[in-house]
Design goal:
Layout (H helix, E strand, L loop, with lengths): L11 E4 L5 H11 L3 E6 L12 E2 L2 E2 H7 L3 E4 L5 H12 L3 E4 L5 H4 L4 H7 L4 E6 L14 H7 L2 H4 L14 H24 L4 E5 H8 L1 H10 L14 E5 L2 E11 L6 E9 L33 H5 L10
Parallel strand pairs: 1-2, 1-6, 2-5, 6-7, 7-8
Antiparallel strand pairs: 3-4, 9-10, 10-11
Helix pairs in contact: 1-8, 6-9, 8-9
C-alpha cells in the first residue's frame, strides 16, 4: 500500500533556530510532512554539546532535529548569505530565534525576506518579543516560568519558587509558533502573501497563568499553592509505588443530580511497547501510552487493602 500524502507535503522550511523553542517548531512541521532544512553555523548548533548523550550523540539535539535535512554554513560571510538568499526564494517558511534585531543586521529581516519572496512566512521566537522595553533581553525557559508567576504557583505551601522539570515554556512557545505558521499558510492561500509571526517565552508564561491573572485583576484573589491537590485528590505512597487519586463531578444520565467519580492512576516508569509495523493511519494505535489503572468507585476499598504504607493505616 502506498504511503498517504502528508499534510505539509511540498512545503519547504528553513530552520535557523537554536536550542529548543525555535527548532521544535521545525520538528513539528517536519513530522507533518514539510521539508525542513536545518541551517547550522560552522562547528554545529550549540545544542549538539548538550547531554544526555546516547551512542556519542546529544539526545537533546537529535530529538529536536530529527527528520530534518542538514546544512552547515556561515551566515556572516558573503558566500553563506548568498546561499541563504537563494534558499529563501524557493522556501515557504523561515524560523529564527536570534536576539531581536540580529537577523535584520545579518540581512534577513522580514522586509528583506519579503523582497526576495513575497510568499515567505517568517517565524520569530524570542524571550520577550520583537518590540517593547524588554526586547533586547535574552532569556530561556525558566524566565517565562518566573515572570508569569508559574514558579510561585508550583510546588507545596511554604517551599521556594519551583520550576517544572521539563521546559514547558519552550515547548508551548513552539506550539504557539507552529499554530501561527499553519494559520499563515492558510491565509496565504487567500491573499497570496506571507507574513511575519512573533512568539515569545513571556507570552507563553502568561498564557499558563491566565486564570490566576484574571482572578487577581478582577477580584484581588491571590492563589495558593496546593502541591498535588487538596483533600482526597492527591498523591499517595503505597507498598508497591505511588498512586494519584482524582475526583470529578459528573451529571447523571437524567441530568437531575451530580455524582462523584473517583479515579486512581498508578505511577509506572515503563511505557507500553509501540505496536510493531504500525505505519499507516489504518494500522492499530502505535502511540506509546503510560501504564495506568482506573479503579471503579465501588471496589476501590478492596484495591487499597494491603497496599497502603504502614503510616497510612490510621
Amino acid at each position: 500500500m502506498a504511503m498517504p500524502k502528508t499534510a505539509l507535503e511540498g512545503i519547504r522550511v528553513l530552520d535557523l533556530g537554536r536550542y529548543q523553542a525555535g527548532p521544535r517548531i521545525g520538528l513539528v512541521l517536519a513530522r507533518l510532512g514539510a521539508e525542513v532544512i536545518k541551517v547550522e553555523a560552522p562547528g554545529g548548533d550549540e545544542s549538539r554539546s548538550g547531554g544526555p548523550f546516547v551512542r556519542g550523540q546529544s539526545a537533546y539535539w537529535v530529538q529536536y532535529n530529527s527528520g530534518k535535512k542538514s546544512l552547515g554554513l556561515d551566515m556572516r560571510n558573503a558566500k553563506g548569505k548568498e546561499i541563504v538568499r537563494e534558499l529563501v526564494k524557493v522556501s515557504d517558511i523561515l524560523i529564527q530565534n536570534f536576539r531581536p534585531g540580529t537577523i535584520a543586521t545579518m540581512g534577513f529581516g522580514y522586509d528583506q525576506l519579503k523582497a526576495l519572496n513575497p510568499r515567505i512566512i517568517m517565524v520569530n521566537v524570542s524571550a520577550y518579543g520583537q518590540y517593547g522595553p524588554y526586547r533586547d533581553r535574552i532569556g530561556f525557559d525558566p524566565i517565562g516560568q518566573a515572570i508569569s508567576g508559574m514558579m510561585s504557583l508550583t510546588g507545596f505551601p511554604g517551599t521556594p519558587p519551583t520550576r517544572t522539570y521539563n521546559p514547558v515554556i519552550d515547548r508551548i512557545t513552539a506550539l504557539h509558533g507552529t499554530i501561527g505558521t499553519l494559520a499563515a499558510l492558510r491565509e496565504r492561500e487567500l491573499s497570496g502573501e506571507g507574513q511575519c509571526i512573533d512568539v515569545c517565552l513571556a507570552d507563553t508564561g502568561f498564557s499558563m497563568t491566565e486564570i490566576q491573572c484574571a482572578a487577581y485583576l478582577g477580584e484581588g484573589i491571590i492563589p495558593e499553592r496546593s502541591g498535588n491537590g487538596r483533600g482526597l485528590q492527591n498523591t499517595y505512597e503505597t507498598t508497591d509505588g505511588w498512586v494519584l487519586i482524582l475526583k470529578r463531578c459528573t451529571k447523571s444520565p437524567s441530568n437531575l443530580r451530580f455524582y462523584e467519580e473517583t479515579m486512581c492512576c498508578r505511577f509506572d516508569s515503563a511505557p507500553e511497547p509501540i505496536s510493531p509495523g504500525a505505519t499507516h493511519r489504518s494500522s492499530p494505535c502505535c502511540i506509546a501510552a503510560p501504564r495506568s489503572r482506573v479503579v471503579d468507585p465501588v471496589p476501590q476499598r478492596f484495591w487499597f487493602t494491603g497496599r497502603l504504607s504502614p503510616q497510612d493505616h490510621r
